[in-house]
Amino acid sequence: MKVLSHILVYRRFLLIVFTLLVLLPLPIIVRTKEAECAYTLFVVAIFWLTEALPLSVTALLPGLMFPLFGIMTSKNVASAYFKDFHLLLIGVICLATSIEKWNLHKRIALRMVMMVGVNPAWLTLGFMSSTAFLSMWLSNTSTAAMVMPIVEAVAQQIISAEAEVEATQMTHFSGSTNHGLETDEGVETNERKEKTIPVPGYSNDAGKISRKTELEKNSGTGTKYRTERDHMLCKLMCLCIAYSSTIGGLTTITGTSTNLIFAEHFNMRYPDCHCINFGSWFMLSFPAAIIILLLSWIWLHWLFLGFNFKEMFKCGKTKTAKQKACAEVIKQEYQKLGPMRYQEIVTLVLFIVMALLWFSRDPGFVSGWSALFPEYPGFATDSTVALLIGILFFLIPAKRLTKTTPTGEIVAFDYSPLITWKEFQSFMPWDIAILVGGGFALADGCEESGLSKWIGNKLSPLGSLPVWLIILISSLLVTSLTEVASNPATITLLLPILSPLAEAIQVNPLYILIPSTLCTSFAFLLPVANPPNAIVFSYGHLKVIDMVKAGLGVNIVGVAVVMLGMSTWIRAMFDLSTYPSWAPPISNETMP
């Protein structure tokens, strides 16, 4: 028993040593560049899947092992760790920092929920829509962490509203009234206490979870939930936030790191193809995200509250006590924000300008503003726009430089920008930046060593299968793998394998890479599958089996919609039925 306890304590260290030693015969016996690169690939893959080392530390291993094996020089490996992706990420994080600093995200979320009303079905749809919209521009983790306290306040208000109506006399007798629940970060109330716990794999402030660990028992019943339906409603609202934050991230290139990793890998491997940009990705993924969001809403509502078509879609009816209380708490939270401030207006304007410049750079159906520089075709990318807007956040003052007092006196303020470098650093996910860089280095090593060609040739017999079956198999494989491994690690690991597979079977690479990239985000089954799941799970309303049952349905919906999209509008957009000229011809080389 003592030996077993020691093994458990040192299991990560033992796993690292065991992996390195067990795979060591591969480069020693085979002694080819392909085998040496495969050794590095297997070691990195195992460490990523098991998280024996931190993901970003594992991502540095190609920088160590490729020069030692003579696959790439240290200089060339180092250049792979900082690409166009990183500049785009910096600009987007500047925007996210300003949005969160000046509370624009809360105003957007509350306003969208107020627009859809307080019917439970429409309320959850309102939260899902606002969360998905925010997730298009912010990280999925940040979005879930920001919206969840508001949802928790509304959920607890619903739980207590009916009890207050039925026990008004008791409430007056005890002298206690419900004043709503505070949702501002850092505020402790008598109803519950907060503590902050880290999300595995995230080191920035956005990766921290504001967890409500002690809910005050309902005064009318002495239980945490007044009825089973109240409990089901809490489960429904929690899962809606987790899943919609992930679904919203599908929509834009910058919405989630997996999309960015795919775009950078694709543009590096196929430089002659200019079909993947912000606008084209939005047009292919937005319809899919909308369909997945609506079907997931219906599925979750049916699973937890039952599907009553008349109840879900009724409007203009008399509001119940619960609905009035819910509407009141949302209205109060919105009123606390006051009128839009100067900082919010400037941030919103820059946000809109960034989106418009992204869409209009090269929309495809017409010439974009990039055509104004014909002597430099392809030089300006989405990262150019992101950097331009990102730098403006450090230049534009956070408040007017002077102010006139009621007495006519002019008061001068110190100059301070919308965001500071220190604030930017606290939001910048440096671990993700290094992780992505490690994936690029791994992909470059596979190309330089010839491992990609060898894998492609070995997979060429799959060409006898129908294309739709290959896409389905790869999508299901990715969806399963991403439940136990991080999304960035999964896509980084599989892209260098799927690209040569498409080339070997003479299929348009986009036909396989697009659905695989989308399915990488479908981590809905487990709390540990991605940070948004962990955030909502930490609030204590859910059990693992709840997330498994709900996530299984959303996974099926997601894969089905992706398959539908690949057979219809996405296929037409990129002419996926033909093997493109920008893809390399099949090679007959094999590994010695």
TrEMBL record:
Mode of membrane association: Multi-pass membrane protein
Keyword annotations: Ion transport, Membrane, Sodium, Sodium transport, Transmembrane, Transmembrane helix, Transport
Keyword Membrane: yes
PROSITE patterns recorded: NA_SULFATE
Transmembrane segments: 12-30, 42-69, 81-99, 119-138, 236-262, 282-304, 342-359, 379-396, 467-498, 510-529, 550-570
Signal sequence coordinates: none
Gene Ontology CC entries for this record: plasma membrane
One term of GO molecular function: sodium:sulfate symporter activity
Main location per the UniProt record: membrane
Domain of life of the source: Eukaryota
Record keyword Transmembrane helix present: yes
Localization of this protein: Membrane
Record Pfam families: Na_sulph_symp
Family: Belongs to the SLC13A/DASS transporter (TC 2.A.47) family. NADC subfamily.
Protein name (Swiss-Prot/TrEMBL): Solute carrier family 13 member 1
Source organism per UniProt: Ailuropoda melanoleuca
Gene: SLC13A1
